[in-house]
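TEACHING EXERCISE
Course module: macromolecular assemblies
Task: Read the component lines below, then compare them to the predicted structure of the full complex.
Student: A.B.
Group: 4
Components provided:
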Amino acid sequence: MNDHEPQPEDTRAAEYVLGTLDAEQRVAVDMALQAGDASLAREIAWWEQRLGQLGLELEPVAPPAHVWSRIALGTGIGRSSVAGGRRRSRRLWQGLATAASLAAVALALVLLLGPDRPGVEGEAGAPVYASVIRDEPTGAGWLVTTADRGDRLEVTALRGYPTDADHSLQLWLLPEAGNPIPLGLMPQAGRHRMGLPPEAADALSAAAKLAVSLEPAGGSPTGQPTGEVLWVEPLTGQPG
Amino acid sequence: MADNSQLAEWLEAVGRGDEQAFQHLYRATSAHLYSLLLRMLRNEERAQDALQDTFVKVWKKSHTYSSDRGSPLTWLLSVARYRALDMLRRQRPETGMPEDPDVEALLLVDENSPGPQDENVTEEALAAVRTCLGTLQADQRRSVILAYYEGLTHQELAARLGAPLGTVKSWVRRGLMRLRECLVETR
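Instructor-supplied answer key:
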């Protein structure tokens, strides 16, 4: 904090920060600030620090995760990573930190734990795929692996990603070529298995990716992503 | 939770376009900002809009933060609060959330009780503001607190407190003057 001590008779800066100035006074302060009134700017900063303590009295409330997605869209961050990609839609931008290496770890875990896991056990010849979908800011994430000889996907919520009652998170398979294939809704907790339609089972490959989009509750009404694509992650595969 | 110097580092990196730092900053601070925005706007959707606007602004204008603005978190709270005030001034919300029973209760906390468990909160600064608010006359304190947490104008304060406009203006003004005197003394 700086050592500036505002003049006692002038509460203009304090009321500017508090928000009680009327529109005209407020504009006058804004204009003075733009004109480079350093003393006023210091007073305002002084008050922002003091009154800001009141904001810290409140119990923090985690915002729903889609706010971050909207911010990412609004700032354009994360887009550079799909420049030149094969996405048709501008909304299909790459999610946050790519988790290719995590997916490799996940796959290794699946293979390691294989004997105890239905769907992996005794499946000589069936390739296994895995992916980790992760939201860096909120720590939300899912482990996605193939199961039942590749007939199903098993999605394990590592940490939920709350959405409001009007929205669901839908998982898609992005084949190497062609349209996204709808898979199922992402669980907020626990482990969930979803059947793989034959076209999806055929499209599983190390070149395919998984995507999650924000859709109306219950999933996309059109069979294609209609909302923001929140994350796109690669699949890591172990040939059978 | 990150401390102030870590937050300042991230903010500085955000100014250089560091997306990772921006994510870290969001993760570390958004819950504090969202809580205040909910309190002021009383509507989840509007609070989310304001939070989004705030961080987009921070991303685009983070160079306006400098360490002499004080703690990064209180600076971010100010940016969020100005955004909420703008929204309130344009249109008073259809109240979407229940009225708060008593915002003043927030400050009736025992001074010796631990504050929020968060290293961002500089306990001394918080204690000073609490203590000094306690030295204000009740009407002055109530006016300042209502204005802060609900973004009320003088007119709205007058209506809420059932007092003439001139009286309310004087409560706010004298309350702030007293608060400043006290904060300077206890520094």
